[in-house]
Each structure stands twice: as structure tokens, then as C-alpha cells.
Amino acid sequence: MGIIQGGMGHAMKHSMTCIRPVHLDDLLTLQQIGRQTFFETFAHSCTEADMQAYLAKSFAEAQLASELQNPDSAFYFFEAEGHVLGYLKLNFAQAQTELQEATAIEIERIYVLHDFQGQGVGQALYQHALHIAHNHHARYIWLGVWEYNHQA
Question: How far apart, in whole angstroms, are the C-alpha atoms of residue 15 and residue 10?
Fold first, then answer.
């Protein structure tokens, strides 16, 4: 499974799509899309050195493996035609970056490849997060956003 670099255009809306849980054997795909989408989103707001340091730390295999194995976190891929176009990370209970309430759920990340933004991928991932919150009887769901992420 790979990541599409572009070229599907609006055909994505009519292709086979799914949102599925990310597992430990998806680690390298998660690492690749995580690095790519973070770079596309924030490359303009920091130095190259700062960006490379963040990518190396936050998307290191050991870091992602730890997050994937945390029972209070969950990742989901949005796929079209077998290609990952975006992903979602949810945190429950103590995994929340700022514990709001034990029954709250944090949307820590919704990232979509630049070429597929504005095509409903992010919205589908957001709706999936709401569905999970409903199934977990969460009192509320909140979005953790870096101040420079103006799109979020």
C-alpha cells in the first residue's frame, strides 16, 4: 500500500474509499503520511532545521510504535483505491494531550495530503471521530490544534 502523490483529482469522490484502523504493521505507512502531511502543512511556518528535528522526533518508528500500542489512542487511515490519503488520531482518557475529562475524546490529528484537501477526506475523518465519540458515550470531543494551523 502506498501514498498517492496526486493525480486522482476529483475521481477520488467516485472511487472505493474506506476509513480503517491503523495497526502496528502499518507503521511505515503511518510514518510516511505523517511526515508528508505535517511537512505540507507547516513547512512555511518554521525553519528547515526545526522541521527536520520535529519530523525525526515525532515520527520516529519507536515513537509511532509506542503511540500505536497505547490502548488510549487510536489511528485511522482514509483510503481510496488502496492508497492512504489522510489519517486521524484520537486520544482517550490519560492519552489526551491536555486531560479535559476522562470521558472526553481528543482529536489530536486530522491530516490530509495536500492534493486531496477540499475533497471531503478531512470531513469524513471528522465524522468518523464523531461516530466513535458517540459509540464511546463521550461527554464531548475536542480538537487539539497548534496555533499556526490556520486551516484547522
Answer: 9
